Amino acid sequence: MFPLLLISSPWFLPEEHQVLEELFAAGLTTLHLRKPGASRAEVEAYLQAVPEQFHGRIMLHQHHDLARDYALQGLHLPAATRETWRGRPAPGQHLSTSFHSLDELSRHRRRYHHVFLSPIFNSISKVGYSAAFPPQELVAALRRWAARRGYQPQVVALGGIDTATLGPARELGFTGAAALGAIWQHPDPVAVFRELQQVAAQPL
């Protein structure tokens, strides 16, 4: 199964938690909780509103100290904080980060479970945030990456992921994809997620 991750809306949405519970029930295994500018209290309130049985599916993008009090899937280091962060995830928790160039990806040193590479396709949620990688360059780089011996995190495609681009992301050689705008900007997020699941389950 091609892993399908979800990044939260950067804004607090009406009925967001109800939709999120439906997404978890539909099979969502990883939510990246990203609310830029939200206070620690707001992020903690968000976590408290999520049923405890789903906490292990959440990757936290900010206020990482909250992970000490909640059994989360892990921590995500945004690019702006990656070099200065000196903490470590709790035992059993994952660590992830975001890259925006193949050079960054090749030079990473920390042991991540998965990394985002973006933007792969024209962004749905950010106007003017366009695909930044020639397909042939991506294919070659990801093939070299897959051939490396020893440690290597999963490389997850981010940017413009929807039912039309999920298949091409797999064909490029990514080991997963993360959706954002395709889900949260649709009037029926759960239906779109199920459609994405069907695409992810198709054989290459």
Describe, in plain words, how this protein is organized in 3D.
It contains 8 helices and 8 strands. It has a single domain, classed as Alpha-Beta Barrel (TIM Barrel). The mean pLDDT is 94. Strands 1-2-3-4-5-6-7-8 form an 8-stranded parallel β-barrel. It starts with a strand and ends with a helix. The chain has helices at 16-25, 40-49, 79-82, 102-107, 135-147, 166-172, 181-184, 189-201; strands spanning 4-7, 31-33, 58-60, 74-77, 94-99, 114-117, 154-158, 176-179. With 204 residues, the protein is an alpha/beta fold.
Task: Itemize the secondary structure elements and their pairings.
Blueprint: E1 4-7, H1 16-25, E2 31-33, H2 40-49, E3 58-60, E4 74-77, H3 79-82, E5 94-99, H4 102-107, E6 114-117, H5 135-147, E7 154-158, H6 166-172, E8 176-179, H7 181-184, H8 189-201
Corresponding CATH superfamily? Aldolase class I
Structural class: alpha/beta
* Rounded mean pLDDT score: 94
What is the CATH class designation? Alpha Beta
Cα separation of the termini: 11 Å
- Total domain count: 1
Protein name: Thiamine phosphate synthase
Pathway: Cofactor biosynthesis; thiamine diphosphate biosynthesis
InterPro entries: Aldolase_TIM (IPR013785), ThiamineP_synth_sf (IPR036206), ThiamineP_synth_TenI (IPR022998)
Domain Thiamine phosphate synthase/TenI: 15-183
